[in-house]
Every structure is written in structure tokens, then in C-alpha cells.
Amino acid sequence: MKAAFIKQYGDVETLQLGQLPKPEPERNQVLIRVAASAVNPVDFHLRNGMMADTGTHTLPLVLGWDCSGVVEQVGEGVDSLQVGDKVLAFTPISEQGTNAEFVAVDAELVVEKPAELSFVEAAALPLAAVTAWQGLHRHGRLAQGKTVLIHNASGAVGSYAVQIAKAAGAYVVATASATKLDYVTSLGADEVFNERDLEWQSSNQYDVAYVAKPGIELLAESACCVKSGGSIVSTFDEIAEQQVATHGISFTRMWVENSATDLEQLVQLVKEKAVKIPIDSVYPLEEIQTAHLRSEQHKAVGKIVLVVDPLLKY
Ligand SMILES: NC(=O)c1ccc[n+]([C@@H]2O[C@H](COP(=O)([O-])OP(=O)(O)OC[C@H]3O[C@@H](n4cnc5c(N)ncnc54)[C@H](OP(=O)(O)O)[C@@H]3O)[C@@H](O)[C@H]2O)c1
């Protein structure tokens, strides 16, 4: 099968296109013919060797853990899906990825693609949106009427977080860099600030602070703005326990988990038009190096998507 993969860890030049053996679905798995895949920061981190010493992956490694496509083959024990079903999935980061013509996935992780979404849009949903969902609902204990602070609201996770928080009935204060404030306003945030301004820092006002980017200083500043009893959730950096304990707040450095249940909740929000799919750019699989550069240089506003099979349209 056609695939983009790395045979060694390193910079963007290590990404190559070629042929790899087509995977076989194991018991309780389906084989998906991939229409589109997406790029997330974890792709370039792994490409650079972030987990090289852990023995998690074998080379050649196919990156990418979002996909949309069509069920090509059904493994033994699967009765929830059929050949020809149009689907999307967030596949396990510990396994071979989705920047390839085919991927074998546990059927329990696969969700039906709604007709409203193209394959490109569907591939842009799973990893980033589930990260935002779990960060706010599971770790941040989001609820109606809560006041939520979201940093990096123009990134993929942040774009979904703003919309998920609004859909839950929260009051949303979001930050981004100066040129992206109109975009974040268009997502529905109630107040939008340049992250460098001090205005978002009026103390003790937030129930939840969601920090969806690296930055120890930003975490510490955000912790100071969370009400006693509230929570701060980070997608990247850690903060010292005593730093949050003095404020009476909880801290979670989250790790997103594969969950079809959470993904289905997001599909439902999309169907209800409460969540729009924020697409930054779309590249053919052959231009994966350009797509990785865009991600690694932090230029994206929303999701970067790779079209794997241009013949699969809806
Ligand atoms: N823990 C987990 O389970 C998990 C899961 C998914 C993602 N993540 C992490 O969450 C963060 C957001 O992910 P994402 O998919 O939303 O990323 P993304 O779409 O690539 O975010 C892009 C935006 O990040 C901002 N940015 C600027 N400098 C940055 C820097 N040095 N590092 C990171 N972002 C920078 C830029 O916005 P401005 O110009 O407005 O600053 C840029 O538009 C990443 O750090 C990612 O690694 C963690």
C-alpha cells in the first residue's frame, strides 16, 4: 500500500513516501481504506524521536492518528460495522498510524461518519477535538454557567475547546496572538484577548483554565486567575503541586485517551451545528513534508489535513 513513513527519527526530510505491506485486520478490528488523515503536533514530536527510547514503535513508522475513510474488510468478531461503512477514528498513538492507504483499527474505536461531513472535515475532528473534550469535561469539570479561560484558542485543540465550552453553556474567555483575535471571536468566545496583554489576568475569576500550548510561565500566570476550588488543565507543561495548592485549585497535565464515546459526543455537536470544523490547510499525502513544517512552525489556525485517497469524496 502507499504510505508516508519514517525509517529513522529526525527532521522533516526523514518523511518519505513508498510502499509498505497492507495490514490485516485482527480479531475485533476493521481495515479502513483511508480517505483523509490529519497532522497533529504529536506527529512531529514522534518524528523527532520523543519516544524513540521507549520501545513503543517499530520502524518504519507511519505517523498520523486521525482518519476518515471506508471500511474495506471486517475482522472476526466484529458485528457493529460492515464493508462500505463510511467512518472516522482516533487510532492509538502507540501503534502504526494513518498516513497510509489502509489502517487496521479496533472496531470499538471507529465511529460512523455523518453525511454532513466530507472525509476531509471528518479527519480533522478526532484527536484534537477529543483532547479538548476530555480536557474540559473530564479534567476541568466543565458545566453550564462556569467561566472558562482557554489559551491558544486559534490552535486546533483551542478552536474546538472554545466551541465545546460554549455548547456546554460556559462563559468563554480566550487568548491568541494579535493577528488571530477575529478568528477566535468567530468561534463564539465571549471575550478574546491577545495572550500578551494583561487583561485576561484579572485575578480569581475563572472556574477552569485550559492551557493548550507549552509555557511554564503561562501556566503559573493562569493558576493565579483560577478561583479557589477550580481547576487548571495543561496539554503540555507541568506545574509544581505547591504552586496550585496555595491557590486551592487542582492541576491536571492531561494525556488524551482514545474514546469512541467522546468522539460520538463531538459528532453529535457537529450535527447540531454547535461545533464547526476549523480547517487550516489541506495537502495531498505526497506533500506531507510541507504539512509537517506548517505544524512544527506553529503557523496553523485550525487543522492541517492530508488527503490520502482523492477519489473518496463524501
Ligand atoms: N496532552 C495531550 O494529550 C495533547 C493532545 C493534543 C495536543 N497536545 C498539545 O497541545 C498543544 C496544542 O495542540 P494543537 O493541535 O492545538 O496545536 P496547533 O494547532 O499546532 O497550535 C497552533 C498554534 O499554536 C500557537 N503557538 C505558537 N507558538 C507555539 C509553541 N511554541 N508551541 C505551541 N504552540 C504555539 C500558535 O498560535 P498563536 O500565534 O496564537 O500563539 C499556532 O497558531 C500542543 O502543544 C500539543 O502538543 C497535547
TrEMBL record:
Coiled coil: none
Domain Enoyl reductase (ER): 10-306
Single Gene Ontology MF annotation: oxidoreductase activity
InterPro entries linked: ADH-like_N, Chloroplast_QOR, ER, GroES-like_sf, NAD(P)-bd_dom_sf
SMART domains xref list: PKS_ER (SM00829)
Organism superkingdom: Bacteria
TM region(s), chain numbering: none
Protein's name in the database: Alcohol dehydrogenase GroES-like protein
